[in-house]
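Hypothesis: this fold can be encoded by more than one sequence.
Test: take the structure tokens below, design a sequence, compare later.
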């Protein structure tokens, strides 16, 4: 599990999901484009949530 902070939100997600999300963000930034990604993660209160990154 990895701890990911984005904006004011802090989430836990699987290692593969976190690594893939960061690599995808790098590729999107390198190409000066934008995208939205939804990832299942665990909120600070322990609930499973769908986190939207854009």
């Amino acid at each position: 599990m990895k701890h990911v902070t984005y904006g004011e939100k802090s989430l836990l997600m699987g290692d593969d999901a976190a690594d893939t999300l960061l690599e995808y963000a790098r590729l999107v930034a390198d190409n000066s484009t934008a995208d939205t990604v939804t990832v299942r993660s665990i909120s600070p209160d322990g609930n499973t949530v769908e986190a939207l990154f854009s």
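The longest helix spans residues 15-30. The CA atoms of residues 18 and 31 lie 20 Å apart.
Hypothesis status: open.
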